[in-house]
Amino acid sequence: MVIDKINAANKEIESPNLLKSTQIIIDEALTKLGYPKEVFELLKEPIRMLTVRIPVRMDDDSIKVFTGYRAQHNDAIGPTKGGIRFHPEITQDEVKALSIWMSLKAGIVDLPYGGGKGGIVCDPRVMSIRELERLSRGYVRAISQIVGPTKDIPAPDVFTNSQIMSWMMDEYSRIREFDSPGFITGKPIVLGGSQGRESSTAKGVVICIEEAAKKRGITIQGAKIAIQGFGNAGSYLAKFLYDSGAKIVGISDAYGALYDENGLDIPYLLDKRDSFGVVTKHFKNTITNKELLVLPCDILVPAAISNQITKENANQIKAKIIVEAANGPTTLEANNILTQKGILLVPDVLASAGGVTVSYFEWVQNNLGYYWSEKEVSEKLHKVMTEAFENVYSTAIKQNVNMRLAGYMIGVRKIAEASRFRGWI
Ligand code: NAD
Question: Which of 2, 208, 232 best tests ligand 1's pocket when mutated (most atoms within 8 Å of CB)?
Fold first, then answer.
């Protein structure tokens, strides 16, 4: 029942069309770069979108048919790459928008990929482990024609994990009749996963927070930080920032938020959270997610779901810096309000690119058959993220635009150039 309520709320929140607002910024970026309209016509939608129906035998012996999607935005630069989301509310338009964001992220951190994304309409929280395995294998059989280590490389996303990646890799290897670790990333280390993959998104966000803080003269030690979401991204983030001496004054999950102006006891909260990133249920003195977003703090990190900062609350935000760990947490109107207020906003397409960067490292290691230490992965990630931050930041200043538009300009230019050299436009 509670899950139903959260899903209904999430649906309402996510309803402003993510695809449309992405297309508006892509159009703006291409116009600013001087590209003709046909470039927008090519890039506004994925070049390939597959919808599949997956019959799964459930534990009670009934057959349930699930709907799945795989979107490939643009493969001019190289194979497409992006996660697979299991969610009851996932829609075709959302998968399309997410695939476009993956293209932009890959462009910003300079990876030899285009963007891809997958989704299955299902609720893994009410499915057994065997049902999830059959669904995962069924999905791979259904999309196997268009994916592969040199075509389109999936990865985990919301409600999918390294176990699901393992089943998918095994199914693909069986279909192709050879071991294919490079088919999918986010695998366990023993199956060719990379050191540092699980915490890579949060590490990338921390690097962006550090760089943004330097620009605004804020020291991380003692800085007041509020984080929305305590899942994979949010919980690692809270840990890394707490370890660096920051005061994590607020955290939240789907059920509410916790606030302490003197800083929360993050190790204790990490110990209490469940595998779905829920912790506030153990406490009585909670505040709402809405209240968390407008708390007095130096840095705000949305790390949960989309469309959280809107024209309704943007004016009340007190943070000096916002770093988007989540995909699409800020609406177009809110982005403009925050820019006018002089808040430094580090956009999702840059801030959350640490995950795809280490996924790329995993794929490279699989292709080489030679594996790097956690230190090597961490150093390489640091170099990629700091260079990407500086590139987006300086482009924003040079072009007199906000960091989101600057990021889109960098990301979209690469795909447009590759498409042009191939003679597509
Ligand atoms: P997750 O499922 O592990 O955690 C999500 C967190 O958000 C949980 O704490 C959950 O309780 C909370 N939440 C759910 N609904 C909420 C609501 N209505 N209000 C407030 N909180 C709510 O997911 P994650 O992997 O941490 O991803 C979080 C965000 O970061 C997503 O937007 C995802 O697309 C993005 N992201 C994640 C990665 C990654 O590698 N994990 C990479 C890039 C982007």
Answer: 232
Q: Which of 44, 105, 117, 247 is catalytic?
A: 117
DSSP 143-192: HTTT-BTTTEEEEE-TT--HHHHHHHHHHHHHHHTS--GGG-SS--GGGT
Task: Establish whether 151 is a catalytic residue.
Answer: no
Q: Check whether residue 144 and residue 212 sit in a common domain.
A: no
Domain that holds residue 98: 45-181
Q: 264-280 in b/e burial notation, b at 16+ Cβ within 10 A?
A: bebeebbeebeeebbbb
Nearest ligand 1 atom, CA 13 = 18
Structure confidence by residue, pLDDT tens digits, 223-278: 999 999 999 899 999 999 999 999 999 999 999 999 999 999 999 999 999 988 99
**177 and 207 in one domain?**
no
**Residue 339 in tokens:** 């820019």
The DSSP bridge pattern shows strands 247-253 and 224-228 to be parallel
The tally of domains found in the chain comes to 2
In Å, how far are 64, 121, 298 from 53, measured between CA atoms?
10, 10, 47
pLDDT more than 70, % of the chain: 96
- Reported as a single tens digit per residue, the pLDDT across 118-146 is 999 999 989 999 999 999 999 999 999 99
